[in-house]
Design brief:
Helix content: 25-40%
Low-confidence stretches: 19-28
Shape: globular
CATH superfamily of the largest domain: FAD/NAD(P)-binding domain
CATH topology of the largest domain: FAD/NAD(P)-binding domain
CATH architecture of the largest domain: 3-Layer(bba) Sandwich
Distance between the termini: 119 Å
Radius of gyration: 31 Å
Number of strands: 22
Mean pLDDT: 89
Strand content: 15-25%
Number of helices: 14
Largest sheet: 7 strands, mixed
Length: 517
């Protein structure tokens, strides 16, 4: 190789080596001193949220949900999990709706506290103890307040995890795709737009004009949670589910209770034997049941109230609790702006997909009426959302167990004896009385019965009715067996833990089979 060419090659090799070294030096330098990451620099790495079942539109939200109770929450969760951009509008500072704050949760927590007091006093070891009687309701409610706080925190996390916007305020429709939101504060109102909406605003106690609910001795089922004085006597007007539950609570606290019922018997839609058992136990506990009575007027005084009935009777008491009917919270929604109208009780009519007469507006929960239960409301909300996103598994809820938290509890599903008789279905009855069960004797519960109604030829289970403590839990065993299509023989051929309350199913099934000939 010529000398000049050799020199050029050597220089090129040298340059290449230097470049390589510089490259490695740069790599080593980057490895030693990597780029620093700061949460404050505004740089974010995200993924586009999974989108499905979305309709193209120019609105801010795919769906809005009015109300953060069980129905609204279930609808919002289902919509969010389906990839929808969702906002929930609710006037409370905390989620949970009326069910958590003034309905299901506080009343059932209160009921449990009273139940504990009753059991405490029944125990022979503590029969001389008088604590627990004649205490203000607000004191007994301390446990309920703790449960409410836990429930609010739990459900708040659900919204956060699913990236659901919670907007505090009262919603009011401006048109079919626009909602105005206002608060009780000095903040200005704002508007949001939406493609679809779910109305789940719940209900409130009905307040007739003839009563002064501002008086400190006149209560409804919401206001009663603020009662802060001892009432030795109380009138409960209305013997529906809420009235009967509060009759149990006040009787358990040692109050004298007058229960005014405008029908012939308590909870007349129940199986007649169950209704009779409740009436019997109420009277045993000291509740004065007055059937077929209606209010004429109420006198209110500083030290008492006097209820005048149309029958001419007068009842004097320390306070009155009105539990006669509920009204849907729809009056402030400006439904006229979207062409919707409610019935006299503020309720909306829906089809079997929970759709109102406005195709993109749905309604669920207490605002559509029956069955007005938190359990049903949750399923209604979830299924309404499923219909909205085109889920093939969506269904209309029409089979719901009844759960009444009196002391003791009542729960049922399926047909009653009166219904089966009217339909001329050949049925038979299997019964298990709790007083015969070992577990019931151990825990000191003597009152209660489980009834199984079944077809006497096919043994198909037609209805299950339970009266007694833990009834709301016990019923789910029968509900599952009915839904799976099993017959009465399932209970006979299944081994139950012993001793348990669930064993009542085997006892009742054998009792029923003994009646077949």
């Amino acid at each position: 190789m010529p000398k000049k060419q050799k020199a050029t090659a050597t220089k090129a090799a040298s340059n290449t080596k230097e470049t390589v070294l510089q490259t490695f030096e740069h790599i080593d330098h980057d490895h030693t001193h990597p780029n620093l990451i700061s949460p404050l620099d505004g740089h974010r790495i995200g993924l586009a949220r999974h989108q499905q079942n979305r309709t193209k539109h120019n609105y801010e939200y795919d769906a809005i949900v009015l109300g953060a109770g069980p129905a609204g929450e279930a609808a919002a969760m289902k919509l969010a999990k389906s990839g929808q951009r969702v906002a929930v509008i609710d006037p409370r500072d905390q989620v949970g709706g009326n069910s958590t704050h003034v309905g299901t949760i506080p009343s059932k927590a209160l009921r449990q506290s009273v139940f504990n007091i009753i059991n405490f006093r029944r125990d022979p070891l503590f029969q001389q103890t008088k604590d627990g009687y004649q205490v203000p309701l607000s004191k007994v409610l301390s446990r309920a307040r703790e449960v409410i706080r836990h429930q609010v925190n739990t459900h708040k996390l659900f919204y956060e995890r699913n990236q659901i916007h919670i907007i505090r305020g009262w919603g009011k429709f401006i048109d079919e795709h626009t909602l105005e939101i206002c608060t009780n504060d000095q903040e200005p109102t704002k508007t949001i737009t939406f493609n679809q909406a779910v109305i789940a605003v719940g209900s409130r106690p009905y307040r007739p004009d003839i009563l002064d609910f501002n008086h400190p001795r006149v209560f409804d089922s919401d206001k009663i949670l603020q009662m802060d004085y001892v009432a030795r006597k109380i009138i409960i007007y209305g013997a529906g589910v809420i009235g009967c539950e509060y009759a149990s609570i006040f009787t358990g606290l040692g109050y004298v209770v007058d229960l005014i019922n405008n029908k012939e018997q308590l909870l007349s839609y129940l199986d007649e034997e169950i209704s009779d058992a409740l009436s019997h136990d109420f009277r045993q506990f000291g509740v004065r049941i007055r059937n077929n009575e209606e209010i004429e007027r109420l006198e209110t005084h500083d030290d008492c109230v006097i209820l005048h009935l149309k029958s001419g009777k007068k009842i004097k008491s320390d306070a009155i609790l009105w539990c006669n009917g509920r009204t849907g919270n729809t009056d402030s929604l400006n439904l006229e702006a979207i062409g919707l109208a409610t019935n006299s009780r503020g309720q909306l009519e829906v089809d079997h997909s929970y759709r109102t007469s406005v195709p993109h507006i749905y309604a669920v929960g207490d605002v559509i009426g029956w069955p007005s239960l938190a359990s049903a409301a949750y399923d209604q909300g979830r299924n309404a959302a499923a219909f909205m996103v085109g889920d093939e598994d969506a269904e209309f809820i029409n089979s719901v167990p009844t759960g009444i938290y009196t002391i003791p509890e009542i729960s049922s599903i399926g047909k009653t004896e009166a219904e089966l008789t009217a339909e001329q279905i050949p049925y038979e009855v299997g019964q298990a009385f709790f007083k015969h069960l070992a577990r019931s004797q151990i825990i000191g519960e003597r009152s209660g019965v489980l009834k199984i109604l079944f077809h006497r030829e096919t043994l198909e289970i037609l209805g299950i009715h339970c009266y007694g403590n833990h009834a709301s839990e016990i019923i789910h065993i029968g509900q599952a067996v009915m839904k799976c299509g099993h017959t009465l023989e399932y209970f006979v051929n299944t081994t139950f833990n012993y001793p348990t309350m669930a064993e009542a199913y085997r006892v009742a099934a054998l009792n029923g089979l003994n009646r077949i000939f």
